[in-house]
Amino acid sequence: MPIHHIPAPPHVKAPPLSFGTRIGDLLFISGIPGFDAHGNLPDEFEAQFANIVTNFTRVLTEGGAGLRDLVKVNVLLTRAADVATMNRLYAAAFGPAPYPARTTCVVVALPDPKMLIEIEGVAAVAKP
């Protein structure tokens, strides 16, 4: 079964990984940070979240899927105080219900000290 790798966009200084990997009907999306189109990481949580949705959607599209095809999402936050804001933004971006299964964790840190949130997921891709 062929494996299709989706690289990080050129503006993101990514570690050695694919932003997405599709095998068969499944698309696995690596943790996506909130970098903008110029490779900058904004200070504001809302801006990072918006950038993640843009980058996440790009990976989904390149893998043959969309936000409604997500079956599992993991959200990593560095501040518990952002959970309510994340839930509001998440509902707007990933809705309407039904939503994919989700785990939300508050972690001590993410790879870049300015990262406030990272989202990863798995999508079920329709056959052509």
Automatic annotation (TrEMBL):
Classification via Gene3D superfamilies: RutC-like
Alphabetical list of PANTHER family matching this protein: 2-IMINOBUTANOATE/2-IMINOPROPANOATE DEAMINASE RIDA (PTHR11803), 2-IMINOBUTANOATE_2-IMINOPROPANOATE DEAMINASE (PTHR11803:SF39)
Protein name per its UniProtKB record: RidA family protein
Species whose genome carries this gene: Bradyrhizobium denitrificans
High-level lineage: Bacteria, Pseudomonadati, Pseudomonadota, Alphaproteobacteria, Hyphomicrobiales
